[in-house]
């Protein structure tokens, strides 16, 4: 038996002994909650002394650290690395569709899930073992999530600062707080991207109408004023097309009470994105670049492979990997870029989580973005991220649901008639509001023109 195997064996024995003291014997090496524990309904479990819980937790952590051989390795935030094996419990901060798809992918691997989400019967809560129904800034609810989870991740980046601090102190959050702190603020994010040696559009911090006038004159019209925090799908932005709009733009966005940043408008030929994954052990992989088409600032289509030169695809993937390594990201980081007519790439923004433009990976890649995120945060070897088939992902908004359900059942929508295999994903949201993301369809095909014809023929997205 090698020294590493001896260490792994000792860790497993310590875990068994600690669980035996609590009336359980498990070989999972993780906090493998029973159904009654998940529901919080077992009085015997509830009455276990805090000291006993601590012994069990320490032994479980020790077992996974021995097994991974990472007992002295630490991440960027100083947390000791752990390997969370299948059978463990993953806590998710947020209960939306990204958490839902993470949970569905992780269940296939044998993980259990608890989500913290204020809304009842959330998309993630519908498929998780348990939903803690509380607001995102509820510290006691966050503490409960920490108590029942072996590892915690988040499905959105606007996490309350106090909750983030508590979780990194009382739980294992391999993504840490540093990356969140950076990506929650556009100015910090841009500086971090530049520090990685990657280009962003010229920008300026704006604190007054006069500064906005001066920067807009320097960058030229149009230019884009953005709030430094919050904002998604086009919210928190104002495209300034003339000097006359400057006062109104400043007044409107200043109401958010956050810093403002002005960006030079990049005249691009394509919008693309690359999703990279990095594990605590430093392994990094990138998914193929997606070509993205937006309507009303909401993602409409992702086309993969992107209809750009292979050299530029490769360069985009290299840039995403460089950013993930420079920022010491753990889990997924989505890198959105502009491609100009002369072949230059500018990074627009980052998202440290699964991303809408990565949904195509669910059927079109060897490993989906959701499985890859779980592999990364649990410190498992990352999966191969290569493409299995060309694919077009089309988003399903509230106004598309009813006509889509009618179309999807017709013969002409099927693979034999269209040359396209349609994979439907609905998110379990109760109300189909206009412009609200309700699901997506992955259209698998050998020729993406056939997928585009499928979309056009359906008539669903033509309005």
From TrEMBL:
Locate the compositionally biased regions of type Polar residues: 14-34
- Tell me yes or no: is Iron among this UniProt entry's keywords: no
Alphabetically, which GO biological process terms does the record hold?
A: 'de novo' IMP biosynthetic process
Question: What would you give as a GO molecular function for this chain, any one?
Answer: ATP binding
The entry's family comment says: Belongs to the PurK/PurT family.
Which PANTHER family does the record associate with it?
PHOSPHORIBOSYLAMINOIMIDAZOLE CARBOXYLASE, PURINE BIOSYNTHESIS PROTEIN 6/7, PUR6/7
Name listed for the protein in its UniProt record: N5-carboxyaminoimidazole ribonucleotide synthase
Q: Which organism is it from?
A: Paenibacillus lutrae
């Amino acid at each position: 038996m090698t020294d590493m195997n001896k260490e792994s064996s000792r860790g497993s024995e310590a875990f068994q002994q600690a669980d035996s003291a609590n009336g359980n014997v498990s070989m999972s090496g993780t906090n493998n909650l029973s159904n009654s524990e998940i529901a919080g309904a077992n009085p015997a479990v509830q009455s276990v002394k805090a000291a006993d819980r601590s012994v069990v937790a320490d032994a479980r952590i020790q077992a996974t650290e021995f097994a991974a051989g990472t007992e002295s390795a630490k991440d960027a935030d100083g947390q000791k690395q752990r390997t969370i094996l299948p059978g463990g419990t993953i806590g998710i901060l947020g209960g939306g569709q990204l958490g839902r798809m993470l949970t569905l992918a992780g269940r296939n691997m044998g993980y259990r899930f608890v989500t913290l989400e204020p809304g009842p019967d959330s998309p993630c809560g519908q498929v998780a073992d348990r939903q803690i129904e509380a607001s995102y800034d509820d510290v006691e609810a966050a503490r409960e999530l920490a108590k029942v989870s072996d590892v915690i991740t988040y499905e959105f980046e606007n996490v309350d600062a106090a909750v983030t601090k508590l979780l990194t102190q009382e739980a294992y959050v391999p993504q840490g707080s540093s990356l969140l702190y950076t990506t929650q603020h556009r100015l910090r994010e841009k500086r971090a991207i530049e520090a990685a040696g990657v280009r962003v559009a010229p920008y300026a911090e704006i604190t007054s109408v006069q500064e906005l006038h001066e920067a807009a004159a320097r960058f030229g019209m149009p230019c884009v004023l953005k709030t430094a925090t919050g904002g998604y799908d086009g919210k928190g932005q104002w495209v300034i097309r003339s000097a006359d709009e400057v006062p109104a733009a400043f007044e409107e966005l200043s109401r958010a009470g956050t810093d403002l940043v002005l960006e030079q408008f990049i005249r691009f030929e394509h919008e693309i994105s690359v999703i990279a994954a990095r594990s605590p052990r430093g392994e990094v992989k990138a998914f193929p670049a997606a070509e993205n088409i937006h309507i009303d600032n909401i993602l409409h289509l992702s086309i993969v492979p992107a209809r750009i030169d292979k050299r530029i695809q490769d360069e985009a993937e290299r840039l995403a990997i460089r950013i993930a390594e420079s920022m010491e990201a753990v889990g997924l980081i989505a890198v959105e870029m502009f491609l100009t007519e002369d072949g230059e790439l500018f990074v627009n923004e980052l998202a440290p989580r699964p991303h809408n433009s990565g949904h195509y990976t669910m059927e079109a890649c060897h490993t989906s973005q959701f499985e890859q995120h779980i592999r990364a945060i649990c410190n498992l070897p990352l999966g191969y991220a290569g493409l299995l088939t060309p694919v077009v992902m089309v988003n399903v908004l509230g106004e598309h649901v009813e006509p889509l359900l009618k179309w999807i059942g017709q013969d002409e929508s099927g693979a034999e008639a269209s040359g396209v295999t349609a994979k439907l994903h609905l998110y379990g949201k109760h109300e189909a509001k206009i412009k609200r993301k309700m699901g997506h369809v992955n259209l698998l095909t050998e020729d993406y023109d056939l997928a585009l014809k499928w979309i056009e023929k359906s008539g669903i997205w033509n309005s």
